[in-house]
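User: Can you predict the 3D structure for this chain?
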Amino acid sequence: MGWLLPAGEALEADLALLQDLALLKDVAREAGELALDWMRRGARAWDKSHNNPVTEADIAVNDLIAKRLRGARPEYGWLSEETRDNPADRTQGKVWVVDPIDGTKAFVKGDTGFCVAIARIDKGQAVAGVVYNPNFDELLHARRHGGAFLNDRPIRVTQTSHVGCRMVGQPDVFARADAATRWPGMGLISPMPNAVAWRLCLVAAGRWDAAVALNPKNDWDLAAAVLLVQEAGGIATDRDGQPLVFNQASVLQRGVVAAGAALHPLIMERLQNLLASQDPT
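Assistant: Here is the predicted structure, written as structure tokens:
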């Protein structure tokens, strides 16, 4: 009961959330068009760390999003892949979580598998989120308890309930000989989208049945897309089946597993068997 607000305050909070979502949609489209412009004319790239590229476009898009969002909501906190983390800037009740270009490797290659991902986090949970792929002009948006949409049309995850499904996953894991009996008939998307957020969007939109990433991911990779999966009727957890909580002391998450409500526990059962077989202890 402590989470319930008086009727007037609840209505005001809902209106503010709708306004924020409208803002996110506008900003995501603007940011995506800027990213495309940079891709057409070429953007200098360099490595932030091993196998972790960044480009002039990432920085320019990040600056645009920061100017628009922080200018409109100066009281909100901020967490972005391309901004040095400042924990003091994440103590507010509402925090923007931003990946200006999720899938930079795809961007550098001129591929379509990148997107802009932005979410609003309240008390560790995504309450509004957008993911925009400018190559396809596809914008997905969701708000807590408000459903998920692709270009303003409702979307739902598939109702698949068997593990011989279409999965957006890591081929090196699922193609292993010792995994064959655990993952029968697995159909893997090819080519694999570089952006994790976009893989989750394919699940939210019902185009693919599940997405699995076993390696660690950051809040900005997941926040908006996880909300989309949830609001499209699916389940998204970390690789251990635990809920994903954002904007904590560490912004690193233990992978992600996303699927429909019937399929998710089946994947988790087989995944835990696979991980246990790899544990040297």
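The chain is about 35% helix and 25% strand. The first helix runs from residue 7 to 41.
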